[in-house]
Design brief:
By secondary structure, the protein is α+β, with helices and mostly antiparallel strands. The chain contains 14 helices and 23 strands. About 50% of the residues are buried. Bound molecules: uridine-diphosphate-N-acetylglucosamine (UD1).
Length: about 425
C-alpha cells in the first residue's frame, strides 16, 4: 500500500508523451488468445495489463513483455477456467469470455470485479454468445459457458452500445462458422483498434456506414504486428491537470480527433486549445469559466471516463457546471472526496451540480475508483496546502507513472511506499 503526498498550487507546464490505451490493449490481448503469434506495441505498464497477460498464460498462450511491446504466442492446451483472483482483479476480464469459448469450447469464471460503478451487468455479453450457440449457466456467482461444437454466426442487435459486449461479440464471431451481423454496436476508437488488430490477423470484418459490423468467421487467425492507439483518457486527464492549475501543456503521441468532445469542453472553459496531426496544446486561463452542462454519452459524445477529472476542473471554475452521467448509474463516488477539499457539489440521481469555489484546501483523500482517483489527485494539485491520497492501486490500473509525469510538469507530488 502506498500513498501520495501532494502540495498543491503549482502550475503544470511542459510537454508529455501519452502511453497506449488501456481500454484498447485489453481487448487486443483478449483477441490474441485466438490469433497466431503477435507483436503488440505501445502496451502501457499498468496492473490491468499485467492481469490480462496472466489470464492469457492461463488460457495456454504465451505473453511476455519487451519494453512497451507484448509478444503473444498461440500456445497449446491451457485451462478454460480463469482463476477467481484474476477475475476479481479487473472487470474487463469478461472481455476474455468470447475468445475463451472460441479457443476452448468452454469458459468457467467468477463474475468480474474492477471499478464499482453501480450495477454493471453483463447480460448483453451473454445474450450475444448465446445467440452464437453457447450454452450459459450461472450459479452462485460463477458463469459456465460451453459450445462443444463451436460458435456460429448470428444476427445480434445490441439494445445499448456496450463497449465490452461489442468487443466480446467481435472476438467470438471472428472464428465462428458463418456470418455475424452486429447492430447497435459501440463505436469507441478502442473498438476500431480491436477490429484493426483482428483484420491484421486475417479476420473478415466489415464496418458499414450505419455502424453495422459484419463479421465472416474464418477457420483460423494468424498473427500480426500491431500498435495500440494512444490513451485518450490519460491524455484528457493530463490536459485537465494543466487546466485546473492554470498551466500550459503539450500532449504528444495522441489522436486529437479521439479527444474532440473533451477539447470542446476545455475550450468552453476558456482554455486555448490547438492541435496538430498527433499533438494537442492547451493554455489555461488563470481562472477557468464554468462549462455549462456536460452529459456523458457513448462515443463520439463526452466520455464517462472523463466525467470525474472534468468535474475536478469545474470545482475551481467561475460559475456553475452541471454534469449528467448517462452511462453508469453510480459514478459520483469521487464527489465526497472532492468535497473534503472544499468543492461545492450537489448530486441528485444522475446529475451533479458544481459551483466553482474560490479556492480548495488540502485534505486527507482516498481514491474511490480509477478515474475518480485521478480526479481526487487533480483536486489536490489545485488545492492550497498539503493533501494525502490513499488507494493508489486504483490509479495504477490506468495511469503509467502518474506521479512521475505530473512531477516532471512541475507538480509537487511524491509517492510514499509503505
Ligand atoms: C468500457 C470501458 C470503461 C468505460 C465504459 C463506457 C474498458 C476496459 N472499459 O467499460 O472504461 O467507462 O466502456 O465507455 O474498455 N451494460 C449492460 N449490460 C451489459 C453490458 C453493459 O447493461 O451486458 C451497461 C453497463 O452497466 C453500463 C453501460 O452499459 O451502464 C456501459 O457499459 P459498457 O459500455 O459495457 O462498459 P464496459 O465495457 O464495462
Amino acid at each position: 500500500m502506498s500513498h501520495y503526498i501532494i502540495r498543491g498550487g503549482n502550475r503544470l507546464v511542459g510537454a508529455l508523451g501519452i502511453h497506449g490505451a488501456k481500454n484498447a490493449a485489453l481487448p487486443v490481448l483478449a483477441a490474441a488468445a485466438i490469433c497466431g503469434d503477435s507483436v503488440i506495441h505501445n502496451c502501457p505498464r499498468l496492473t490491468d495489463i499485467g492481469v490480462a497477460m496472466k489470464i492469457l498464460r492461463h488460457l495456454g498462450c504465451g505473453a511476455r513483455r519487451e519494453g512497451d511491446t507484448i509478444v503473444t504466442t498461440r500456445g497449446t492446451g491451457g485451462d478454460c477456467r480463469i482463476p477467481d483472483g484474476l477475475m476479481g482483479a479487473m472487470r474487463s476480464s469478461i472481455v476474455f469470455l468470447g475468445g475463451m469459448v472460441a479457443r476452448h469450447g468452454c469458459a468457467e469464471l467468477a463474475l468480474p470485479g474492477g471499478c464499482e460503478l453501480g450495477a454493471r451487468p453483463i447480460d448483453l455479453h451473454l445474450a450475444a454468445l448465446s445467440r452464437m450457440g453457447a450454452r450459459i449457466t450461472e450459479t452462485g456467482g460463477r458463469l459456465v459457458c460451453s459450445a462443444p461444437e463451436g460458435l456460429r454466426g448470428a444476427r445480434i442487435d445490441l439494445s445499448f452500445p456496450s463497449v465490452g459486449a461489442t468487443e466480446n461479440t467481435i472476438i467470438a464471431a471472428a472464428t465462428a462458422r458463418g456470418e455475424t451481423i452486429l447492430t447497435g454496436a459501440a463505436r469507441e476508437p478502442e473498438i476500431l483498434d480491436l477490429i484493426d488488430f483482428l483484420q491484421g490477423c486475417g479476420a473478415k470484418i466489415l464496418l458499414e456506414l450505419d455502424g453495422t459490423i459484419r463479421i465472416n468467421g474464418v477457420e483460423q487467425l494468424h498473427g500480426t504486428e500491431h500498435r495500440v492507439i494512444p490513451d485518450r483518457i490519460a491524455a484528457g486527464t493530463y490536459l485537465c491537470a494543466a487546466a485546473i492549475t492554470g498551466g500550459e501543456l503539450l500532449v504528444k503521441r495522441v489522436v486529437p480527433g479521439h479527444l474532440a468532445s473533451s477539447l470542446a469542453v476545455l475550450s468552453q472553459a476558456g482554455c486555448q486549445v490547438t492541435a496538430g496531426s498527433d499533438w494537442v496544446r492547451l493554455a489555461a486561463p488563470q481562472r477557468l469559466s464554468a462549462f455549462g452542462t456536460v452529459k456523458t454519452m457513448p462515443y463520439p459524445g463526452f466520455p464517462t471516463d472523463m466525467q470525474s477529472v472534468m468535474m475536478a476542473a469545474a470545482t475551481v471554475a467561475d460559475g456553475t457546471t452541471v454534469f449528467v452521467e448517462n452511462i453508469f448509474e453510480s459514478r459520483y463516488r469521487h464527489v465526497p472526496e472532492l468535497k473534503k477539499l472544499g468543492a461545492r457539489i450537489i448530486t441528485e440521481g444522475r446529475a451533479a451540480v458544481v459551483t466553482g469555489a474560490e479556492r480548495l484546501t488540502g485534505a486527507g483523500l482516498a481514491c474511490t475508483d480509477l478515474r475518480g482517483g485521478a480526479a481526487v489527485v487533480l483536486g489536490a494539485l489545485a488545492a492550497e496546502g498539503e493533501s494525502t491520497v490513499t488507494g493508489l492501486e486504483h490509479i495504477d490500473r490506468g495511469y503509467d507513472d502518474l506521479e512521475g509525469n505530473l512531477a516532471r510538469l512541475g507538480a509537487d507530488i511524491i509517492r510514499i511506499k509503505e
